[in-house]
Design brief:
The chain has helices spanning 28-39, 46-68, 74-80, 82-93, 110-131, 141-154, 160-166, 170-184, 189-192, 200-213, 223-233, 249-263, 268-280, 283-295, 300-331, 336-362. By secondary structure, it is mainly α.
Length: 377
């Protein structure tokens, strides 16, 4: 078997904490993938790489067949498949910060990309089924914006933010921060992938929003850093991806939906719609989260992230709905259906995550798959 020459792949010796930690497998598919990725770079010869990945391809075949066999609930089965969702999370991360101990040459390996595509087909179908088919008669920016606000207003998902504001315990508040950390510690990154795929007014609007997300060039004001500060203040580990092994499947689905939309140019409308819905539904819940944390005795170190979003997202929601999503629909009318898809998927899947957490807490159970260390540890 021919191995990859040293010059053909990138060192994995990045600064500790900058990559996603290599997670624990959650089934045969993720186990097969992680075993191959951790063993070294892809082979220099394509046929040899195919041989290396044969167990992964077989496990992917079995995973897809298993979910397909659960009709008429096959879409729900995909969104509940822990093993498949973790596998997608790892494959997507190869295009983002990378995974600890995994060679960067795997990012564009064609055989591995084919495996990802094989898993994305049922995943995208499941996301589309979960989002439904919202429609919009308007074709102007203001009309599209009104439709997006109406979609958010009609969303009847249980309110996790209201529960945190009124009822959550300190342990549940810490769980909430750990649960959200798999995205919030990379906040804004998936949506940023849309910037080079847009032009004109939508591009300028997205840059304006993302500039604020990244602190206007001030590292300490980046929203991901504000969230990390909140984590540290309650005794949580703010290392990137630290709680990946602890988060349940709905959190992985939430993250994977963003990356599905972000990494495919054909879905650029969907990632724009996703961001619009995310911004529209951020300001009021952020105020409730902040109120809940203050109720529990936490100070500005903990609430600062949410306080920032109360003000910032009340502005961002208007820019995202009208100047970004609305102008994109005016500019490229063929993308309107995908804009609505992204918004509806955001509302539905984020709602599923909130409903899952709320149900667990109301049943007296924890949301995470493993307990957190005590706050003073």
């Amino acid at each position: 078997m021919t191995t990859t020459p040293v010059w053909a792949h990138t060192s994995v010796s990045d600064t500790p904490g900058t990559r996603l930690p290599l997670p624990r497998a959650r089934g045969p598919l993720s186990s097969a993938l992680l075993t191959v990725l951790a063993a070294g770079p892809p082979a220099d010869d394509t046929d040899d790489t195919r041989a290396l990945l044969a167990p992964v391809r077989e496990a992917a075949d079995e995973a897809v067949a298993k979910t397909a066999g659960q009709a008429p609930d096959r879409h729900e089965a995909v969104l509940q498949d822990d093993d498949l969702q973790l596998t997608l999370t790892v494959l997507y991360e190869l295009h983002h910060r990378g995974v600890t101990g995994v060679d960067d040459a795997w990012e564009w390996d064609p055989t591995l990309l084919a495996v990802r595509q094989q898993l994305e087909r049922p995943f995208e179908a499941a996301v589309r089924a979960r989002a439904g088919r919202p429609t919009c008669e308007a074709t102007d920016a203001a009309g599209v914006a009104r439709t997006l606000f109406a979609l958010a207003e009609a969303d009847d998902s249980p309110s996790l933010s209201r529960y945190v504001a009124r009822h959550a315990t300190a342990d549940q508040a810490r769980e909430f921060l750990a649960l959200r950390s798999v995205y919030q510690l990379m906040e804004a990154d998936p949506h940023t992938w849309a910037i080079p795929r847009l032009y004109g007014t939508p591009k300028a609007a997205l840059v304006e929003i993302q500039s604020d997300e990244y602190g206007g060039g001030r590292p300490g004001s980046m929203h991901a850093e504000l969230f990390a500060r909140a984590m540290r203040s309650v005794g949580l580990d703010d290392t990137y991806g630290h709680y990946l092994d602890a988060v349940p499947t709905p959190a992985l689905v939430s993250l994977n939906t963003m990356w599905l939309f972000a990494l495919h140019r054909r879905l650029r409308g969907a990632i724009v719609g996703h961001l619009a819905a995310y911004e529209i539904t951020s300001s009021i819940p952020s105020r409730l989260y902040s109120n809940g944390l203050r109720r529990l005795g936490y100070d500005a170190e903990t609430t600062g992230y949410f306080d920032e979003h109360v003000e910032a997202d009340s502005v961002h929601e208007q820019i995202a709905a009208r100047d970004l999503a609305g102008r994109l629909a005016e500019q490229q009318p063929a993308l309107l259906d995908d804009i609505l898809l992204g918004a509806a998927a955001c509302l539905a899947i984020e709602g599923d995550l909130g409903a899952f957490a709320l149900e667990r807490w109301q049943d007296g159970a924890r949301v995470l798959l493993e307990p957190l260390d005590p706050a003073g540890a």
